[in-house]
Amino acid sequence: MIVTRSGLVVSPLALRPEDIKVEDIAHSLACCNRFAGHVMKPISVAQHSVFVSRLCSPANQLQALLHDASEAYLGDVTKWVKAAPEMIAYREAEDRAQRVIYERFGCAVEVADEVEQADKLMVRYEAMRGYGRSLPVEASLGYGPPTDEERARVEPWVFWTWREAELAFLARFTELAVGE
User: Fold this and answer.
1) For the chain, N or C: smaller number of CB within 10 Å?
2) Do 63 and 115 touch, CB atoms closer than 8 A?
3) Burial environment of residue 76 by CB neighbours within 10 A (0 to 12, 13 to 18, 19 or more)
4) By the 8 A CB rule, do 45 and 76 touch?
């Protein structure tokens, strides 16, 4: 069990639609750092999510904004650790939580290709900005430095404080989910 920012007591392994508040998601993701915090300046998951949503077509922007929302309830695990065979139970829990979140906000539960590509671009861009170079993993995995054209799609980009990220996430949600 966890206690969310709004005071709800939630079981992340048995997340229900009534447990989910966008304010809790925005706050938690704003306080959660990308790359396990191992960059020169913090980059929050909330900032990442806002930028991923901006890279997508209108039909996929809300899904893109919420694509990492399960991390608000389960915490973030780096993609390289999460992919390990030993982490299957975590991946299953994350999939269940993410499905409930998507359904709660009326998104398709199958992640759109466009969202996956935007996420991958942001990983590469944030690595360049956060480390001052590309990710220190094989380019053959598709994580080489972004091209000039890709950088132009993302910019302008600056490091946000956690509070800026939280407010931007909430503003973006309001913009995309009118009537939720």
Assistant:
1) N
2) yes
3) buried
4) yes
